[in-house]
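Human: For the file, kindly provide a plain-text protein record giving the amino acid sequence and the backbone structure tokens, at your earliest convenience.
Assistant:
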Amino acid sequence: MTDQELIAYFDKKELPQILRIDRATTQYEVKDAVQRNIENIRASPQDHRSRRRLVNIMDALETPYSGPEIPRF
């Protein structure tokens, strides 16, 4: 998926306030995080961290994590 396709995906998507990405990761303020990562990609097209973060958020939106949380002691 190109950067333009990734940005277009989030332009059309309704984003939740909180998103569980995986067992250890919960993204708060998803809309702000997506905007921040898109700005980073536009500023530096070689920024693979922001791109990977957007892909993780996209995957979590498509197939929400429903497994157990990390146990709290």
In short: The chain has a mean pLDDT of 92. The chain has one domain: 3-62. Helices lie at 3-12, 30-43, 48-62. The two ends are 40 Å apart (CA to CA).
